[in-house]
């Protein structure tokens, strides 16, 4: 049986113009974002302006990580100690971690079989929790019906902060993911859509929130060196009222990111070409269910999810292992112990335990795979057929066993 030899954690190299710019920054010695020569605009400030323009947002702040951007957004919004913050039960650990770092208490909302937030459960939890805020994670790029969500949030006067770690470049009904709430957070960590090793971007149209965030990020009184911040009036109180919680981005990372932003939309198309090939192979396999995408969703297929509905909890690890043996790295969210990046709400033990039966049932069947752009479209066809083969083999053995039991009865 043939084996796939690609590396699931190998991203593309940093583009040559970005490397050149990074070398120039290093030669200059001016790596700190506020260390500028006379009349110079720092790489970090330019990145902020360019990302704000890409998003159609007036303001943007670059910072140390996506997780930091989320915590910062929550603190700049004014989350109080012990305040409940609504969020997805199905997400990755930086999300509840950011709520915790801001002093909030995560209130988890159930997940639908299409891997988006369950709006009925959201409305119920809005009623129960007296929360003022939803931190919505567009987990693995699945975008909930944003029209219905915004209507619901408006009705109950709940603010929205978007976690767009997996939706940079995506949109809903023609409007960019990240433009629906009071703020949105992005990550530029290696496994996201643009790569500076670590990094985060926060956008907002709210001048007070953004002024708070800029001061908190560690701007001292140098916020006038930014190119995507609110007018000075917004800083009069903010500069004295907010603690410095240093988490700036530096010019080296910004230099690496600026050229990548120019090709982001092309990268999204390349991801989607790869995603479609794998999706179409798996979509017709008996026992596998692919989450459905809403027609209004322009997603970025930088990872793919399948629900192995046809396998039980004993067969699932066997399926994952047989794919692994053939060089295909699927991760399973149903394991009791979190492995690699997989994570479940019940393993975040610093949060009060919550009953989430719908999410648990989905995680039990959920398999996840990254699609690095170093894989070609034909690599993806290969990966799809390996997964399909292994699944079908194990699924058939399952059916045969059931047949036997049936006849014995
Ligand atoms: C990666 C990620 C983040 C932010 O992560 P950082 O590593 O801190 O940049 C936030 N939310 C989700 C869902 C993520 O996967």
Report on the structure:
- The protein has 409 residues and is α/β, with parallel strands linked by helices.
- 41% of the residues lie in helices and 13% in strands.
- It has helices spanning 16-28, 43-55, 66-77, 94-101, 119-129, 146-156, 207-216, 235-241, 251-262, 264-282, 315-325, 357-363, 377-408, and strands at 59-63, 84-88, 105-109, 133-137, 159-163, 171-172, 175-176, 183-187, 200-204, 297-298, 303-307, 331-332, 366-370.
- The strands form three sheets. It has a seven-stranded mixed β-sheet, sandwiched between helices. Strands 7-6-10 form a three-stranded antiparallel β-sheet, with no helix packed on it.
- Helix 6 (146-156) links the parallel strand 4 (133-137) and strand 5.
- Helix 3 packs parallel to helix 4.
- The chain starts with 15 loop residues before the first helix and ends with a helix.
- Residues 404-409 have low confidence and may be disordered.
- Residues 65-67, 91-92, 94-95, 137, 139, 163, 165-166, 187, 189, 200 line the site of pyridoxal-5'-phosphate.
- Pyridoxal-5'-phosphate is lined by residues 65-67, 91-92, 94-95, 137, 139, 163, 165-166, 187, 189, 200.
């Amino acid at each position: 049986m043939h084996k796939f030899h690609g590396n699931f954690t190998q991203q593309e190299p940093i583009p040559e113009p970005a490397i050149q710019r990074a070398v120039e920054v290093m030669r200059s010695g001016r790596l700190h974002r506020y260390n500028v020569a006379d009349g110079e605009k720092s790489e970090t400030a330019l990145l902020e302006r360019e990302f704000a323009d890409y998003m159609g947002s007036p303001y943007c702040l670059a910072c140390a990580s996506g997780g930091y951007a989320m915590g910062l957004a929550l603190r700049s919004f004014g989350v109080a100690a012990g305040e409940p913050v609504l969020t997805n039960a199905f997400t990755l650990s930086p999300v509840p971690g950011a709520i915790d770092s801001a002093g909030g208490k995560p209130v988890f909302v159930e997940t639908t079989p299409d891997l988006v937030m369950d709006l009925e459960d959201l409305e119920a939890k809005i009623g129960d929790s007296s929360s003022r805020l939803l931190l919505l994670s567009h987990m693995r790029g699945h975008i909930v019906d944003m029209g219905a969500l915004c209507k619901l949030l408006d009705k109950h006067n709940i603010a929205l902060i978007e976690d767009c770690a997996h939706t940079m470049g995506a949109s809903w009904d023609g409007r960019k993911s990240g433009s629906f709430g009071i703020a949105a957070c992005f990550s530029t960590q290696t496994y996201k859509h643009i790569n500076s090793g670590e990094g985060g971007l926060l956008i907002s149209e709210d001048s007070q929130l953004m002024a708070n965030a800029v001061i908190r990020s560690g701007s001292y009184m140098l916020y006038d060196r930014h190119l995507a911040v609110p007018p000075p009036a917004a800083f009069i109180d903010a500069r004295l009222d907010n603690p410095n919680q240093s988490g700036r981005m530096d010019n080296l990372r910004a230099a690496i990111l600026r050229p990548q932003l120019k090709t982001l939309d092309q990268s999204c198309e390349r991801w989607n070409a790869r995603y479609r090939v794998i999706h179409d192979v798996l979509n017709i396999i008996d026992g596998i269910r692919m989450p459905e995408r809403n027609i209004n969703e322009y997603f970025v297929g930088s990872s793919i999810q399948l629900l192995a509905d046809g396998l039980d909890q004993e067969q699932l690890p066997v399926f994952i292992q047989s794919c692994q043996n053939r060089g295909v790295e699927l991760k399973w969210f149903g394991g009791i112990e979190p492995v690699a990046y997989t994570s479940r709400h019940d393993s975040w033990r610093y949060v009060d335990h919550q009953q989430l039966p719908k999410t648990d049932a989905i995680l039990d069947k959920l398999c996840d795979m990254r699609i690095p752009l170093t894989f070609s479209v034909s690599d993806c066809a290969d990966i799809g057929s390996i997964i399909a083969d292994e699944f079908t083999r194990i699924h058939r053995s399952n059916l045969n066993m059931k047949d036997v039991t049936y006849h014995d009865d």
